[in-house]
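EI: anyone free to look at a 315-residue chain?
SC: sure, send it
EI:
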Amino acid sequence: MSAHDFLVELGTEELPPKALKSLGDAFLAGIEKGLKGAGLGYTASRVYAAPRRLAVLIEQLEEQQADRSMNLDGPPIQAAFDADGNPTQAALGFARKCGVDIAEIDRSGAKLRFAQHIPGQPAQNLLPTIVQDSLNDLPIPKRMRWAARRDEFVRPTQWLVMLFGDAVVDCEILAQRAGRVSRGHRFHANRDVRISSPANYAEDLRSAYVLADFAERREIISRRVDELAAAENGSAIVPPALLDEVTALVDGRMAGAAGVLVRGTLPRGAAGSTDQHDAGQPEVLLPARCERQAAAALHHRGQRRVQGPGADRLG
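SC: here you go
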């Protein structure tokens, strides 16, 4: 059976940073659940999550369900027909359950029986419902409406990419018509970005200064914070939840052949002003302080201090 890569990307206004990672993980889990329920196999899956987008890539997704047979047993023949041979309510109810007339029910055995051959449906016909169901099941405490629409989501939607192989999946979800055009970085590449294929999704966006891979951005920020802390002759204390939040605040930026330069997070996660009141504070108090100021704590020459903007102002 033939198979193709599948990509779905939902573009939105800025998503809640503290919830971005969980939204992405739930989006992937919902699509995997839908594909399993539809009997569509695939080889691998991954999620992308950035401030203005949630995306899932499914590799080598089967293009059609396998044909299947449905066999249902009904009530015993004695209970299915009365003495005059007329169908009882039990027989009629079984026929309704099967969606057919009583004449189409097999009565050759000890029980009524219905057998049906069900041809497999093309994956393109099933994918819109699978994506919609996954979005409906996202852990969103309070959904919002926008403009005059009745659609609801965590933030207003802006675009939708749905590709199965080279073809656009024809559908509309959350007020957006599916296409193959995404968007670049809001400031550094505020333009449409044509997604050439599902497999090239991340690289097409990278050319527009967007790092869609949450884990990649997180690793870059973590490494850069460690480098800046080392330059201060110290080591950074960055709670995982804070690192996830900062990662969810930025898309990323390419800086020539040198690679990626993450904009806007380094001052928040590393070198900045210092509040001397933090020196010698009990370590148990530092995570709360870091979260409030979106700043990392720095071990420096036997002392602990909070580094980040506003550290002087917020005592």
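EI: Confidence is low (pLDDT under 50) at residues 254-289, 303-315.
SC: 👍
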